[in-house]
Amino acid sequence: MRMSGVQRPGLAALRRLVLALSCLFLADSATQAGELDRAGLARYFPPPLVVGEKDDILPVWPILKQQAGSYEVFAYAFESIDFAPIPGFGGTPPDLLVALAPDGTFRDVKVLSHREPVFLEGLGSEPLFAFVEQYVGLSARQPIRVGRPNARASGASPQTTVDGIAMATASTRTINQSVLASALAVARGKLGFGAANVGLRVEAKADLYEPLGLDALLARGWVRRLTVTRQEAARAFRGTGLEEAGEGAQDDILADLYVALLDVPSIGRNLLGPARFEALMRELGPGNHAVMVLSAGPSDAPENPLGESFVLGSVPERVSVGQGGLVVNARDMAVERRGAGLAEGLPAGDWTILRIDAAAGFDPSVPWMLTDKIVRERGQILSEKITRDFSVETTLPGNLFHRESAQDGPDWTEAWRARLPALVGIAGMVALLVPVLVWQRRLVADARRFPVFRLAFLAVTVAFVGYGAQAQLSIVTLMGLVRAALRTHDFAFLLYDPPSLVLWAFVLGSLVLWGRGTFCGWLCPFGAMQELIAWLGCPLRIQLVVVPPALDQALRKAKYVVLVGLLAATAAGSPAADAMAEVEPFKTAITLSFLRSWPFVAYAVGLLVLNLFVYKGFCRYLCPLGAGLALAGRLRILDWIPRRSECGTPCQLCKVRCRYGAIAADGRIDYPECFQCMDCVTIIHDPGQCVPQVVARRHAKRIVPRPVPAR
Amino acid sequence: MSGRVTRRRAVLGAFGLAVLGGATRFRTMAAARGLASDTRAGLAFGTTVSLTAAGPDRGELEAALSDGLSAMHAVEREASLFRSDGALPRLNREGRLDGPPPHLAALLAFALDLAAETGGAFDPTVQPLWPLWSRAAKVGERPDPGALTACLARIGWRRVRLTPEAIILDKGTEVTLNALVQGYAADVVMAALRARGIADAFIDTGEFGAAGTHPDGSPWRLGIADPRRKGEIAEVIAPFTGFAATSGDYNMAFSPDFSDHHIYNPATGYSPTGVSSVTVTAPSGLVADGLSTACMVLGRERGGALVAGRQGCAVRFTEKA
């Protein structure tokens, strides 16, 4: 395009910059949507599978399989990020390729992209790939939870549990949520079923009982009868050459099934009698269902589905329970099939009680079908089986049941329940720390016991806050907030890490009252680790390096530069942001407990060694989180570290003793640099150390201290 | 007449292709003839659809296949009942559609002409019968005769007025074009492929169209399913070019003996009892599809006469057993 007129070069440069920036945004927002095209999908579903045309409403690709010249649907493939962009540990949602079979089972789950730090830099991606493999064969109809590592081997239901990964609880939970939520969205849109039955608990009301005979139950439709006469069978098999089977009258009954849902007391108790009913309910357990099928037809007829071929304890081949067009998993309970059992009035015959697990998503309060397959064989040598289905529907009144959608609350509530001990521990630490800092004349003033308390507290910070509760606050959270604010508008990721969130809440409160030091000096595990190492290193008598004041001032500013760089990269959507966040050694030292590739370990250990020469050098000069907190700490309301008029002029004791250089020459506290170690407070309350007080006593002259805000 | 929801395979398609060992194999054979070939498959009209074509230029071939599929989806959006957001469901909901889209108008015009020609044996207004029958079939019953009579009062092709400006339905009337739309889609797809210079193609929209030859140079073959033995082929049409449509009682049967199914006699509200399936070949998919449905209702004699009057058309009947 030809531009008329002359543009000023400055404007042109600015426009180029804006264009470049918006390109960055566009590039990033593109990664928020699915990334695969036909060719990309074809790599995952190679021939003989054919990748169909993308649905024009939902971003779903049918994957088809050729069957005798025409095609049938093998799976629906989609990217989880299109349906459930659930932010991961660092705020970026993982993207999974999910293939869902038409019956709702997972055909395949693959990781397309993720930024989960624990896998990228710690464990490697293989455990994650193995993790998602576990979904293959599971059904999206059931709620699936992440168990402990080896949960399946140690008895958790393999239909509803996937093994978790140690140290990656938050990430695996995000992956699980992404898989399930996106699969449900697609199942609802393409397969005609959905969230309604997942985690649904429908239980028969136990106290609702009325004595009813078999005839009354049949009349109400609570027990259903399925009969197939010779004539009906012949009609169904018409055209197959198998119309006739055996000799007999047209209206002879070939199959005669009684079907009943036993866990409804008015049905089960009347059919089984009280004692058998109670025993069955105990065996069944709450939330599960039992369907009785009694075959009253001629027991030696090939049409008897519970005859010779029936295998005790199996999923029967010839009878099945279905609902909403899908077969429900129902297995014979292997209760003794003969003799005592079914009450008076029931016809004699073979019977089975089928168990339907609560997790199967079966809802007895809406219509369901029992289907009987009649199988006939054609041909003598290469015989061919021809099957015809006969079904009977049962519709029970809804008021016989309690319905409860178990997972009404989103999954994060579970995270909170599971982390309750950690939350209690963190609350306890805060409850201990606050009074100590508030009533400074008590413990803080005790020059002998206070350092012991402080070291013990820091040890707990490292062991419990850091390694135990995994609540090392991190710049990654701030970056996640920036991403959420600018692009995803979804802050839910915060809810998946309760201990950190609780700690953040306290830190924000303490920032406003006291400044950054409450966190940096007491609750940051890496900070505490440095202080403990410095204390342990005391016997080495290492001489701290004296940083020249001009250099010190410049280095202090460096951490703000790091912060701005990180947040700007994040805001611009630069993929480099995550790599830049590695300036923070927390992940290496705390989250992954140094189990990481050597450059990262060398960096973290290097910073700990540096700490022996330049005390807490990382915290003071580099830490972007500390910088962020220091900036926010400028909102601080209280000047709460006590000072005297003599502080600074003439006394320089505290300034010299401050290991952080956070006391100015004039005696003022530089709060953005103060780590609240309380050394100067201990001094000021110690008449033997605080120089003005010593001098005053020596001169036998009472000095009137300036009012000290601390109590 | 049909209100089918899931169209199972009426005809087994280009089964020669399966015999040859799938797409990869015939791609190689096409390449030997200096042609690029490809197959695309997808979902439309509640079933799976596929296009196979060959052409001298790979890029042009892919563009042609994409055009073909988007043409098919355009037809689906306008004239299918499977898309609740489509023009036809809207017409049925509101009883009136101003500025009818071209595919819908063309299909409806053909449907009304065929209805006039067959004395109402073909009728696009049988849609209200569908929910009545499918509800009854779910509980293993037939519809209540009273309800059926009430339903018949809402049926009749003269209750539809089509002008270039609008389609207007009498109260209670609902239109289905499911009996025509797949055959018509085959026409539209074939036209889209031809416009890109494709001479060899096989189209499966649920009904079938073929042009030229198989990419390996052999003629197209079309297998016709056995209406009673699922998955078996009763007859093979070879060579096959042009279009073919099959109507049968077995696709969406309401009763195990196939006496009640998704094709209705508009006069009685019950399914016609004469034949179990009809296959019509014709120079147009629309004509093939319309005639096959009409023949189900008319039976062998009158249906045969109807087809005989059309140039280039042939019909095969399978009697009920």
Automatic annotation (TrEMBL), chain B:
<keyword id="KW-0274">FAD</keyword>
<protein>
    <recommendedName>
        <fullName>FAD:protein FMN transferase</fullName>
        <ecNumber>2.7.1.180</ecNumber>
    </recommendedName>
</protein>
<dbReference type="InterPro" id="IPR024932">
    <property type="entry name" value="ApbE"/>
</dbReference>
<keyword id="KW-0808">Transferase</keyword>
<comment type="similarity">
    <text>Belongs to the ApbE family.</text>
</comment>
<dbReference type="Pfam" id="PF02424">
    <property type="entry name" value="ApbE"/>
</dbReference>
<keyword id="KW-0285">Flavoprotein</keyword>
<dbReference type="InterPro" id="IPR003374">
    <property type="entry name" value="ApbE-like_sf"/>
</dbReference>
<keyword id="KW-0479">Metal-binding</keyword>
<keyword id="KW-0460">Magnesium</keyword>
<keyword id="KW-0449">Lipoprotein</keyword>
